[in-house]
Write a structure and sequence with these properties.
single chain; 320 residues; alpha/beta; two-stranded antiparallel sheet; 14 helices; 11 strands; 19% strand; elongated; disordered N terminus
Length: 320
C-alpha cells in the first residue's frame, strides 16, 4: 500500500479546479467492463456504482437507468487511467473500495478514510442511538441536561466517526477523542473540521484514557469500538480486512478482550455517578463482557443490545 496515496492523488492529467472530462459513452464502456470484472472476481457490482458516484457527480438513478451514457461530458476527479488503476487494486489486491475513493458514508456524514483508520461500519452507527437513549433513561434519575451537555470520550476514535456522531447528538457537549495513531488523528481532525466540529471535539494522542487524566470523575459517557478480534483470527479475516485495515484497530489479544478488560477496569475512575459505559464487541463475547463488568463491581444496570442483524453487538452499563 505504500504507493497508494501517490497514485490516488496524481492529478497530472486533471484540469485545475475542474477535473478530467470524459464522454458519456466512454465512461459507460468503462462501467460495463468494471461490472463484468466485478462479477468474475466475486466483488459486489454495487461497488462499481459507488466508486463512480464518489469520482463524479452522477446520481444513483443515472447509473441505474444508464442515462449517463448520453451525456456529452462527464467530469471525473481523476483520469480514466487512474480510475482503472484504482479498480485493478480492488480486484487484484482486494483493497477496500472506501480506501480507493478515500471516503465512506456513515450516518449522515461522508468521512475521509485511509488505510490508517478502520472503515466505519453501518452497525457501529447504533452506538450513537444507544448513547442518546441512555441519556434519556429516567430509571436512575439522570439529569438529562447534565449528561447531554457534559464531557464525553470516544476512545480509539480512528476516522472520528463516533466523535462526530456524539457531537451531533449532543450539541452542547464537549467530545474528547483519543487515538494511539498520529495518522488516524490527522484523519479524524480533518473530518471534524469538514463538518465545523473542530472546536467541539478535542483530540489526544495516547492510549485509551491516559490522556484524559484531567477529566477523572467528570465524564458523562465513554463510547468505544475497541479492537475485539482474537489475534489468531485477524489474518483469517477476509482479505479486504485482514490485509488492508490497521491491525492496531482489529487485534484484541488472545481472546479478543484485552482492550475491553482494560476499559472495564479503568473507566470507573473517569466516569461520574451514573456515567455511561458503552462499547461495541464481537458476536459471542457478550456473556463474558457482562461477567467482567459485574465482577469489577463499579457498574450497574448492565444491558446487552443487538445490531440490526440480531447479533449481540453492544454492552451498555452505568457507573455506580
Amino acid at each position: 500500500m505504500s504507493d497508494f496515496p501517490q497514485k490516488f492523488n496524481d492529478s497530472s492529467s486533471s484540469q485545475p479546479g475542474r477535473g478530467v472530462v470524459v464522454s458519456g459513452p466512454e465512461l459507460w464502456q468503462w462501467w460495463q467492463t468494471a461490472r463484468q470484472q466485478a462479477i468474475a472476481a466475486h466483488v459486489p457490482i454495487s461497488e462499481v456504482d459507488w466508486l463512480l458516484q464518489e469520482m463524479t457527480t452522477l446520481q444513483p438513478l443515472e447509473l441505474r437507468l444508464e442515462t449517463f451514457k448520453d451525456n456529452q461530458q462527464i467530469i471525473l476527479k481523476h483520469s480514466l487511467a487512474i480510475l482503472t488503476d484504482l479498480w485493478q487494486q480492488r480486484l487484484d489486491r482486494r483493497v477496500p473500495v472506501q480506501y480507493l475513493a478515500g471516503s465512506t458514508s456513515w450516518r449522515n456524514f461522508s468521512l475521509k478514510v485511509s488505510p490508517a483508520v478502520l472503515i466505519p461500519r453501518p452497525e457501529t452507527e447504533l452506538l450513537i442511538d444507544l448513547a442518546m437513549a441512555a441519556v434519556q433513561n429516567s430509571k436512575f434519575k439522570i439529569q438529562n441536561s447534565k449528561f447531554s451537555t457534559g464531557d464525553w470520550a470516544d476512545l480509539g476514535t480512528g476516522s472520528g466517526a463516533i466523535a462526530l456522531g456524539l457531537a451531533t447528538a449532543f450539541p452542547e457537549a464537549t467530545i474528547h477523542a483519543v487515538d494511539y495513531s498520529v495518522e488516524a488523528l490527522a484523519i479524524a481532525r480533518a473530518n471534524a473540521e469538514a463538518y465545523g466540529l473542530g472546536d467541539r471535539i478535542h483530540f489526544y494522542q495516547g492510549s485509551w484514557l491516559e490522556p484524559l487524566s484531567h477529566l477523572k470523575g467528570q465524564l458523562s459517557g465513554l463510547v468505544a469500538n475497541p479492537p475485539y478480534i482474537p489475534s489468531a483470527m485477524v489474518l483469517e479475516l477476509q482479505p479486504e480486512v485482514g490485509q488492508h485495515e490497521p491491525h492496531l484497530a482489529l487485534d484484541g489479544g488472545a481472546d479478543g478482550l484485552n482492550c475491553i478488560r482494560h476499559l472495564i477496569n479503568t473507566a470507573p475512575d473517569y466516569l461520574q455517578a451514573n456515567g455511561i459505559w458503552l462499547i461495541e464487541m464481537m458476536a459471542g463475547q457478550a456473556p463474558t463482557v457482562v461477567e467482567l463488568l459485574e465482577q469489577q463491581g463499579s457498574y450497574h444496570a448492565i444491558e446487552v443490545h443487538a445490531d440490526l442483524a440480531g447479533i449481540e453487538r453492544f454492552v451498555l452499563a452505568y457507573r455506580l
